[in-house]
Amino acid sequence: MLAPSVLRERLVTDGGFWREVTVVPQTGSTNADLLDAARAGADEGLVLVAEKQTAGRGRLGRSWSAPAGAGLIFSVLLRPSDVPPGRLGWLPLLTGVAVAAAVHGQAGLPASLKWPNDVLVGERKLAGILAEAHGGAVVVGVGLNVTLSPAELPVPTATSLLIEDAASTDRAALLAAILTELAGWYRAWRADPDVAGLRADYLRWCVTIGREVRAELPGGAVLTGTAADLDEAGRLVLRTPGGPVPVGAGDVLHVR
Fold this sequence. Notes:
It is globular, with a radius of gyration of 17 Å. It has two domains: 4-204, Bira Bifunctional Protein, Domain 2 (BirA Bifunctional Protein, domain 2, 2-Layer Sandwich), CATH 3.30.930; 209-254, SH3 type barrels. Helices cover 26% and strands 29% of the residues. By secondary structure, the chain is α+β, with helices and mostly antiparallel strands. α1 packs parallel to α4, α3 runs antiparallel to α4 (171-191) and α3 crosses α5. It has helices spanning 4-11, 30-39, 90-107, 171-191, 196-205; strands at 20-24, 46-50, 71-78, 111-114, 118-121, 124-134, 137-145, 212-216, 222-230, 236-240, 243-247, 251-254.
């Protein structure tokens, strides 16, 4: 089990962003737990890590699960009250940048990002990200496969650090690296929601840009086109025969 004392020593420091790191053996959903904390008035900077989730959620109502201790399952509580609501779509994107950079640095793998919330190795999903808001709070959850075997993967298109022969599967070191990256990007973005460095870095990691994609939109509509760019709100801009179309929600599939 991850040692809370070790994580606190690395992350809860004078002048640091993270105020508390809690590790629990099991919970229904780390996102749901921190949303409850947000409703109760908790300040930002909380981290909740679970060795196992029994009711984990992904985007679009999907479930997410992994054997106990085989992944990194955690959520963070943020309160970006001074950021315009139209810029909040960047939160899962900057979290993706933090995860990809940490996986590259700690595990030595060529991680990449699929808009809006998947971390890939090659074409296989290594991690997913889910952001949920309540009032002025946003809870961002991450589920990353660390030591799952092929038989334990939730879907055939997933992968894990172990399967990819990562240089390290040290969960504590990886979590510390992700949270350090995340705090740095969050502070920079909160100080300047238009910070050019974030958009440039996201585009550097993102393999969706330039691909032909199929966007399955809320309500059942389907849009196809070339993923051309991100707009100021973090929406994916598709180049279609009728002109550029921004996509802010839905399921985006790489066609080729």
